[in-house]
Design a protein that fits this description.
Elements lengths: L17 H6 L3 E13 L3 E8 L6 E2 L2 E10 L5 E6 L5 E10 L2 E12 L6 E3 L7 H4 L9 H10 L4 H15 L1 E2 L10 H7 L1 E2 L1 H14 L4 E8 L6 E10 L2 E8 L4 E2 L4 E7 L2 H4 L2 E6 L4 E13 L1
Parallel strand pairs: 9-10
Antiparallel strand pairs: 1-7, 1-17, 2-6, 2-16, 3-4, 4-7, 5-6, 8-13, 11-12, 11-15, 12-13, 13-14
Helix pairs in contact: 3-6, 4-6, 5-6
């Protein structure tokens, strides 16, 4: 039971304009998110995984508080940090008669002039950010495009890759799945945000440019969103610069980061397994309110 990271959005609330977001000295994001799984019969030994809590710190983004409520009686819920520092929540339930609900709330503040994330210089050579995964493996087409667009300046290369993917992948929900690879999405020319992110990451890694997948929220959308952080050298070590190839632009203050990883499988917001023949249906809702200061 896995959620596709490009689900049709709910109607978003009234949000600040791009100019208001950029001019505010401080922003407070209040995230309300709900996942409801309904089953047509009882399920047993449910083991559910959530990656939904924003990090304590990510660039100028700071998490002030959060909570996760699980509706099922007898749920054993644990929290841990994975290798990338993401908060992974696991809920294990012996028996779910007909449904389970997860409710997430978080308050995040942002103050500062930019959204780049400072990293140690070792990130430039991190194999997790350089080696292809099954979802971000290259093929001859990706290799040719990467070689043609690559520039000696890593940021210029990332800009070109972002623009190329935006033109090459038309947003269309329902034509790909969470198992669609970058090569398949590029050949199809259609997909959702996670497909665009995988294609851009594949291009980056084909040229030795470290890049990572980002899961989070775009204020104008009701579902979760995906984008890319490209790691470049910095006088103080390295920094991660965020690009949204789905929308063909840099990712700024309208983006709320939740988790980073090698690809979608590392940071899937909701996924899990259970025993039983019952079929399940997922209903997901999300709202991000923003206060300016």
């Amino acid at each position: 039971m896995t959620s596709d990271g490009g689900a049709p959005p709910d109607a978003p609330p009234r949000l600040p304009s791009p100019a208001e977001l950029e001019e505010a000295s401080r922003l407070t994001y209040v995230l309300h998110q709900r996942f409801r799984y309904s089953y047509d019969g009882p399920v047993r030994d449910l083991d559910h995984r959530l990656v939904v809590v924003p990090p304590r710190q990510h660039g100028d983004q700071r998490r002030r508080r959060h909570s996760i409520a699980v509706s099922a009686a007898g749920a054993r819920t644990t929290h841990r940090r994975d290798a990338a520092g993401n908060i992974v929540t696991r809920s294990r339930v012996p028996l779910v008669p007909d449904g389970i609900e997860f409710v997430i709330e978080a308050v995040v503040e942002r103050a500062g002039p930019g959204t780049d994330v400072g990293l140690p210089a070792a990130a430039l050579h991190d194999p997790r950010l350089l080696r292809p995964t099954r979802l971000t493996a290259t093929d001859p087409t990706i290799d040719r495009v990467a070689a043609r667009l690559a520039d000696r300046d890593p940021l210029a290369t990332a800009e070109r890759f972002c623009a190329y993917v935006h033109d090459a992948i038309t947003y269309e929900y329902g034509v790909t799945t969470v198992d669609t690879t970058a090569a398949q999405a590029l050949a199809l020319g259609r997909g959702v945000c996670q497909d665009s992110a995988h294609v851009m990451i594949a291009l980056c890694r084909a040229t030795g440019l470290p890049a990572r997948y980002v899961s989070g929220h775009l204020l104008s959308e009701g579902g979760t969103h995906a984008w890319v952080e490209v790691v470049v050298a910095d006088p103080e070590g390295a920094r991660a610069v965020a690009f949204d190839p789905c929308n063909g632009r840099r990712a700024g203050r309208a983006y709320l980061t939740v988790a980073t990883g090698r690809d979608y499988t590392d940071v899937a917001p909701t996924s899990g397994t259970y025993r039983g023949a019952a079929r399940g249906a997922l209903t997901a809702t999300k709202r991000v309110d923003v206060a300016l200061a």
